[in-house]
Design goal:
The complex is a heterodimer of chains A (793) and B (160).
Chain A (H helix, E strand, L loop, with lengths): L25 H5 L15 E7 L5 E7 L1 H5 L3 E6 H5 L27 E2 L5 E7 L2 H8 L3 E6 L25 E9 L2 H6 L3 E13 L7 E7 L4 E6 L4 H12 L6 E4 L15 H13 L3 E4 L2 H7 L2 E13 L5 E11 L12 H9 L8 E9 L14 H18 L4 H8 L8 E2 L5 E2 L4 H12 L1 H12 L4 E11 L19 E7 L5 E5 L8 H14 L5 E4 L17 H28 L6 E4 L2 E4 L5 E4 H10 L13 E6 L9 E11 L6 E11 L6 H21 L28 E6 L17 H18 L8 E2 L3 H7 L4
Parallel strand pairs in A: 1-12, 8-29, 10-11, 14-15, 20-21, 27-28
Antiparallel strand pairs in A: 1-5, 2-4, 2-6, 3-5, 7-15, 8-13, 9-10, 9-12, 13-14, 16-17, 18-26, 19-20, 19-25, 22-23, 23-24, 26-27
Helix pairs in contact in A: 9-10, 10-11, 10-18, 14-15, 17-18
Chain B lengths: L4 E7 L2 E7 L5 H8 L18 E4 L2 E4 L12 E3 L1 H6 L4 H9 L9 H14 L5 H7 L11 H17 L1
Parallel strand pairs in B: 1-5
Antiparallel strand pairs in B: 1-2, 3-4, 3-5
Classes of the chains: A alpha+beta (793), B alpha+beta (160).
Bound molecules: FE2/S2 (inorganic) cluster (2 copies).
């Protein structure tokens, strides 16, 4: 036990917490020396290409592969039936979402194809180009079936029922009823009703989904070089469906070129690639190209929400009601399910406010479109857009400043712990301080003055807000309780080498968000070793502790705390050795800047490197009954709260060109409270990147389908993503309300940007158009829709 | 499938001679034939800029050029420009400013930024935004990238 034992990580000398240390994994990426799955080249490696359904719904009458198989350089053609022999189907339901149903899904379609783009056969050849050529030689006889495309008609009596094992296309329904909503509306000064639509969009990671499967028949061992954000989950899933023991599967994902949630799901083409490697006993690579990414990656959003709010004369929210309908494609996605998004919408709508009467219905329906599942900020942009728009409309109806109305309905900052209207515990939030800070940053009155002046010149500018709570650091309440092999805990291992360096293993992955930097800063602080002497390993199930991975804004809060704990343990172990060698009590010593020092005055006594040397090479000089432990592992799981909620508030300032319908974003502000900020620059950039993805959904991104279920814009030229030139400067401010559940006190920061930006933009847009009596509630707000709202087209 | 054609190019200062299929594009040639995997592929249809490569001193989209078009030419990739130090100040600013997150867009972004600064030594932030708008980044929100390029330009100006 050393002098500073028991002290918080926040009391350590020479702390790296709160410092914008450059990310240790960035130099190699800047030199083009990253190692992504597609960069892997193995001896005897083959390449897979998939045949994908051209129809949204069809029966596969027959598949003929003999012509394809005759081509030199082709090793094998696999159909859905072939893969089904080695890869069992899965069912994407969670048992805690009562009533959620979805039929078994095969890696490659068997018997029927249920969305345009569903893979049904694969060619494995000596090159990808050849494999793609040969796809054309596979003869498939399809019998087209009527597709169920429109989610609004999916539950109609005459709708095509996609799965005949069910009586209709309902996947899941949840109802919430708190207090007496009807009485609340009756007692309200104003009641506002509105319908909101959220387009179907997708993740567009710049690095597409990729996997190299290498089955070693000598060891019966399957190594998967895989672009994923949840290696241990993938290990469990591949093991289960390929019938291998988990320790016979190793997942390696060194660099991941963006994930945003879409790389946390089971994809048939990836499972088929692994299965084909096992059958062929050779490495097989599959990298999705951009076109098949649009059809094969999960899609997101696609909601229609009817919302209703009742407020008193004074602006108190008396009642809130929503009815949400979402179309999720033909299957609930495995293993996280396609019902979590709507569940979040039901749980979070109005979550920033204290009110008592709430009614909500959520319905999830099957349709013949690509499966929909978790993408950055799951459910939040919908919940927040709906609530925040209703709040602004209500405020305007009672002639009150919307921010004033918000603050009136938010709990006082010292009124926590608290609960949402549906009973979800909120530990420690700062709505009042955050909104006050935002208003200081924004210079609101000036914007309003300028707005009035410009309006008289026919220039329409608007300002809008979005306040929110965000789910981070999820406990097993999110997935584990529903039966999914998804860990909510994380681990950190630390090994001291003989030269005084630390080799650190973390169970979270690095996909650009800075996990390795955060872990290294925490370990540096906890142990007293400088960051350049720390190497962090992530993304390897064989060399890191077991854990959940990086999703749901959990990396810093959960894996960071595991690193605090492991750092404390190895520090004490090092000081135990130092105490023996220096004949001092370990409590009187500390580690600072790689040196053992006297805790009291910082006098250097010996180096940590010297400890390493003695432990490893001259253990004979240590007492007989003493064994030094220079490798430790610790884990952490949040237990007191199901989630560590954060809060933030956005403001968007924009200008609408009422002739062309174009929206120019002028500026965007965010105040974010994610508890302890480990690396401020990194957090700010997470927020900014998140805001830009929110802008994408609000203004540009939409998968456009025709009534036959055909995607009309499935390429990067027609599907618009935000570009540098159309983006505003994004100003980020912070309030720090730590979670008391951990010593580190960090909550997540990865999704609040995406969560809140669409709401602020919708409100700013409608603020701009208010004098023209136009209102838009359908995202994305394209120029066409703006002109429609203005009655110009 | 098809007859291969011999091409001779200089890649990052080394002479290479290879037999390639006429349809092989430049970025695939660089990535898979030469095993220089720093140039990335984001769309294969000329939109995202991840495949940006220098050919005869100009930046090109490696997915829109064929390898055979580089015959007799001078090819430079992120690996070469990192080794010879040409963009080391840009890389330094990208590191300090956290201007790469996942790194997919980063090599292309660096080559594009370098080309911008070659043609315009002190671009405004809006000029930077315009110039890099053919390079998609899904992670950073671009602001860090713009900061890093602006800072590099300012530093170069001072050192002049
Ligand atoms: S891969 Fe060449 S522009 Fe996208
Ligand atoms: S850093 Fe990921 S795409 Fe730019």
């Amino acid at each position: 036990m050393s002098g500073s034992e028991g002290l918080s990580i926040h009391d350590r000398p020479n702390s790296y917490i709160g410092r914008s240390v450059p990310r240790p994994n960035l130099p190699r990426l800047l030199k083009g020396r990253g190692s992504y799955a597609d960069d892997v080249k193995l001896p005897r490696m083959l390449h897979a290409a998939f045949l994908r359904s051209p129809y949204a719904h069809a029966e596969i009458v027959s598949i003929k592969t003999d012509e394809a198989e005759k081509v030199t350089g082709v090793f094998r053609v696999f159909t859905g039936d072939d893969i089904a022999k080695v890869c069992s189907p899965w069912v994407g339901v969670l048992t805690h979402l009562e009533g959620l149903r979805s039929p078994p899904q095969h890696a490659l379609a068997v018997g029927r194809v249920l969305w345009q783009g569903e893979p049904l056969a694969a060619v494995v050849a000596e090159s990808r180009a050849l494999a793609e050529d040969v796809l054309e030689l596979i003869e498939v006889d399809y019998k087209e079936l009527p597709p169920a495309v429109d989610m609004e008609k999916a539950l109609d009596g005459d709708a095509e029922v996609i799965h005949d094992v069910y009586e209709n296309n309902l996947c899941w329904e949840r109802n919430v009823n708190q207090g007496d909503v009807d009485a609340a509306f009756a007692a309200s000064e104003v009641v506002i009703e509105e319908e909101y639509r959220f387009g179907r969009h997708t993740g567009v990671t710049l690095e597409s989904r990729s996997i190299v499967a290498d089955f070693d028949a000598g060891e019966d061992m399957l190594t998967l070089y895989h672009s994923t954000q949840a290696p241990h989950m993938k290990q469990a899933l591949f093991a289960k469906h390929l019938d291998l023991d988990e320790h016979k599967i190793r997942i390696i994902c060194r660099d991941v070129g963006g994930a945003f949630g879409l790389k946390a799901h089971a994809y048939g083409d990836e499972f088929a690639t692994a299965a084909m490697s096992m059958v062929l006993k050779r490495p097989v690579k599959f990298v999705a190209d951009r076109m098949e990414s649009f059809l094969g990656d999960i899609h997101a959003r696609d909601h229609i929400v009817k919302g209703k709010i009742g407020v008193s004369k004074e602006g108190k929210i008396l009642g809130l009601e929503i009815d949400d309908l979402t179309g999720i494609g033909p299957y609930s996605v495995y293993p996280r399910s396609s019902a979590i998004e709507i569940n979040q919408v039901l749980n979070l709508t109005g979550g920033a406010y204290v009110f008592e009467n709430y009614r909500a219905r959520g319905r999830v329906v099957f349709q013949n479109k690509p499966p929909m599942c978790q993408y950055r900020a799951v459910g939040h942009p919908i919940a927040i857009s709906v609530a925040e728009s209703l709040v602004e409309l209500a405020a305007s109806a009672i002639d009150m400043e919307s921010m004033q109305m918000r603050q009136l309905n938010m709990a006082a900052d010292d009124d926590y712990p608290n609960k949402t209207v549906t009973g979800i515990p909120l530990e420690n939030l700062s709505h009042q301080e955050s909104t006050t800070k935002l208003m200081e940053m924004v210079n609101y009155q000036e914007i309003r003055n300028e707005q009035a002046e410009l309006r008289s010149n026919g220039i329409y500018r608007g300002v809008g807000f979005g306040a929110l709570i965000e789910v981070t650091n999820p406990s097993p309440a999110f997935y584990g309780v529903g039966g999914a092999p998804i860990s909510a805990q994380d681990g950190c291992s630390i090994k001291l080498d003989a030269k005084g360096n630390l080799i650190v293993g973390t169970s979270v992955t690095e996909q650009g968000q800075g996990a390795e930097a955060v872990i290294s800063q925490v370990v540096a602080t906890a142990v007293g070793i400088t960051p350049e002497k720390i190497k962090v390993i992530s993304g390897d199930t064989e060399n890191t502790p077991y854990g959940g991975g990086t999703w749901a804004s959990r990396g810093t809060g959960i894996a960071g705390e595991a690193a605090v704990k492991a750092g404390k343990v190895i520090r004490n172990n090092i000081l135990d050795v130092a105490g023996i060698l220096l004949q001092s009590e370990p409590e009187t010593l500390d580690i600072r800047n790689n040196q053992i020092v006297d805790d009291e005055n910082g006098t250097e006594r010996m180096s940590v490197a010297e400890i390493g040397r003695i432990v490893y090479y001259r253990g004979d000089t240590l007492p007989k009954d003493f064994q030094a432990e220079m490798m430790v592992v610790q884990h952490y799981l949040p237990k007191s709260f199901p989630f560590a909620f954060t809060n933030s508030v956005h403001c968007s300032h924009l200008e609408v060109d009422v002739t062309t319908g174009f929206i120019k974003l002028l500026k965007h502000w965010v105040v974010e409270d994610c508890g302890t900020v480990v690396n401020p620059q990194n957090v700010d950039d997470q927020v900014r990147g998140g805001v830009v993805q929110g802008i994408g959904g609000a203004l540009y991104e939409e998968c456009i389908y025709n009534d036959q279920g055909q995607l009309l814009n499935g390429n990067l030229a027609d599907y618009l993503v935000p570009m540098a030139v159309e983006l505003p400067e994004i100003i980020v401010g912070h309030v720090e309300s730590r979670t008391f559940e951990s010593d580190l006190g960090a909550k997540g920061a990865g999704e609040a940007g995406t969560a809140g930006a669409p709401a602020a933009i919708m409100n700013a847009l409608n603020d701009a158009l208010r004098p023209l009596e136009a209102k838009l509630t359908r995202q994305p707000f394209t120029p066409q829709r703006v002109l429609e709202a203005l009655g110009k087209v | 499938m098809t007859n291969r054609i011999e091409i001779n190019t200089t890649v990052n200062g080394e002479t290479v001679s290879r037999m390639v299929e006429p349809r092989t594009n430049l970025v695939d040639f660089v990535r898979y034939d030469l095993e220089l995997t720093g140039s990335h592929v984001g769309c294969e249809h000329g939109v995202c800029g991840a495949c940006t490569i220098r050919l005869n001193g100009e930046i090109v989209r490696g997915c829109l050029m064929l390898a055979v078009q580089a015959d007799g030419g001078l090819v430079e990739t992120i690996e070469g420009l990192s080794e010879n130090g040409k963009i080391s100040d840009l890389q330094e600013q990208f590191l300090i400013r956290n201007a790469g997150q996942c790194g997919s867009c980063t090599p292309g972004m660096l080559l594009t930024a370098d080309a911008l600064l070659e043609s315009n030594a002190s671009p405004t932030r809006m000029e930077i935004r315009e110039f890099i708008s053919g390079n998609y980044c899904r992670c950073t929100g671009f602001e860090a990238i713009i900061d890093a390029i602006e800072k590099t330009a300012q530093t170069r100006q001072k050192e002049r």
